[in-house]
Amino acid sequence: MVAASNACIPVNAPVTAQVAPLPNTTRGEPCPLDGNAGRLNSGKSLLAYPSGKLCVIRSLKDDEALPNSKLSSLVYRGHQFATSVVEMSTSGAYVASGDSRGKLRVWALDHEEHLVKLDTVGLSSAIRAITWDGESKRIAFAGDRLDNTSVCTRAIQWDTANSQGTLYQHQKGQSCAVAFKPNRPFRVVTGGREDGKLHFHKGPPFQKMPLEGDAPCETAHTKGVNSVKYTSDGNLVASVGGDKTVCIYDGKTLALTGKLEGVHTGTIYACDWSGDNKHLMTASADGTCKLFEVSSDGTSITEKHTWKVAEFQLGAPCEKAPRGGMQLGCTFVGGNTPVSVSTNNQLAVLPMPDAGGDIKLITGHCAPIGAVAFDHANKAFYTGDSDGIMVKWDFEMIKAVERIVPADNKDLMYTVHKGAINGMTILSDAQLLSCGWDDTAMYTKNGQLQDKKLDITAQPTSIHTGSSLTAILTVQGILLMKDGEQVSAGLCPISYDGNAICVSKDDKKVYVGGNDNKVYIYDVTGDYKLTEAHVIADGHLKPVHSLALSNDGTKLAAGDTRDVCVYNTSDYSKIIGKSKWCFHLQKITCIAWSPDDKHLATGGLDDSIYLWSFEKTMRRLHYQFTHRGGVVGMSFRKDMEGLNLVSVGGDSCVVQWDFTADAAAKFK
Length: 668
Hints:
Layout: E1 15-19, E2 46-51, E3 54-59, E4 73-76, E5 83-88, E6 94-99, E7 103-108, E8 116-121, E9 127-132, E10 138-143, E11 153-157, E12 175-180, E13 186-192, E14 198-203, E15 207-208, E16 225-230, E17 236-241, E18 246-250, E19 256-260, E20 268-273, E21 279-284, E22 288-294, E23 301-308, H1 309-314, E24 327-333, E25 337-342, E26 347-349, E27 360-362, E28 369-375, E29 380-385, E30 390-394, E31 399-403, E32 421-426, E33 432-436, E34 440-445, E35 448-455, E36 460-465, E37 469-474, E38 478-482, E39 485-486, E40 498-503, E41 509-514, E42 519-524, E43 530-536, E44 546-549, E45 555-559, E46 564-568, E47 574-576, E48 588-593, E49 599-604, E50 609-613, E51 620-623, E52 631-636, E53 644-649, E54 654-658, H2 660-666
Antiparallel strand pairs: 1-54, 2-3, 3-4, 5-6, 6-7, 7-8, 9-10, 10-11, 12-13, 13-14, 14-15, 16-17, 17-18, 18-19, 20-21, 21-22, 22-23, 24-25, 25-26, 26-27, 28-29, 29-30, 30-31, 32-33, 33-34, 34-35, 36-37, 37-38, 38-39, 40-41, 41-42, 42-43, 44-45, 45-46, 46-47, 48-49, 49-50, 50-51, 52-53, 53-54
């Protein structure tokens, strides 16, 4: 259950770096981005957007911290369903967010625990757009309704949810565009996705403005309206939509002052004004973003520049934008830095025409991460998610470097595996071997996907590499590989369901954690067959889900749904038995040994990371709410002194922790 205590990583957690996931995108629907951080954060380059069930506030500068924080990004976890919009207040102190079930939450950005000010059901279905007034006292939002008795647009008081009037409703109850005039006299503009109309309201209390001559102009668009934006001074308001038209209106009378048709060859999904109110940016399904210069009275609209984002990602000209290159959202971060988002979830930081430079991509994951592999020798690590996308990371900077490009990437979706990726390992020659639910293993070398593939013939469960021997555990048996080449004659059969696998450094033994609560130890024969050498039958009360050998190979750690047990690899005697390190509430998914083998870290589906000490076995460090959706993988850094751990989770986040001080105090 989401509560104030777990809406974000706890304040006292020793987090030194956090990489947030990418925005949610759905083809054919606008993706709301917000780059106006408010008066409190003036001068900062903050970007807000929805991602999964999360709300993300991140700085475009790695050395720029968020309010009352040491980190450059915030992942807010207060929603129980998929978030659809995140909007920072004009004061910069609060954030309003909505989800796919109509829940509206207003929470503090400048408070270290991000306490909730308002938690209410705003609409009967998804909230798709939110806007604040210039005083940060009122909120208007638009979205979908489930039936004719509910509404698709509302205006409320920000802290009490009291109604601020009645907004006129759109046909079929669908709207994804709303804008609040930032100064008095207040106006609220809403746009319909189906009827293509704009409704203008004055107040508070807000009511629809009557037609007087040509003002307000409600029918400037012939297709659905996707975005409506006011300038910061409230003099002009712009709207864009499916008719590929940009319309400019007077901010007070809402009379149409300018109109430019056919500005894109595809639907325009978003627009935003620059901080000086002289330029308007648009994002379109044709794979481009455009910059327009608008006169102060709104009568002149001049195209100034075109950013070909899809072509930049594709690396070649294209007549028609690929599916992954469609631009679904845009904003001016800090009023002067254009940013757009593509259907493939990647953010593009666009250079202004007079500044020069190339487009900069911000990559990563949006879907839950399912596997990770750490390459300490080359200071890199790789992650794979449930969409079949793989990303290469810089281990030193904890920064996403690039996505692994598949052989056929014409659609720009970067799908390497046709199913979810659930296993990765680094081979002896530094190649990455990844496997997924498509029953295929792929090879990646130096960030480049190789043509070589391996048919596993069964769904993989776990994968691990010793020195040169790699073992792939599947639902039907174990596949052995040496130096990336299959050496076993098909799958070595096993008589139980295996959950986890581990290979010794000398490549002579294979350890398997079973669903029957046992740990099996096999000898690898000269002809690469497995012979059972030992079975730890009484070590666990629950199925074994994770295994890890110490760096010196003398100890084996095994985790089930509660207990962490440690055994001597010489005689399999217990160092730590069951019911001692037994504080996880759900299955333990990953285990990491410290470089000196004196500490052990475990992560589980209970969102917790525990740190254990072999010198003080009765003590423990518990870090709650580390990753929403559970911890998927982690590893201690070997290039830094102390206990520095990098973890990845089902929330698509990558987090670096420094446990050194906490461990010194706890285990002294």
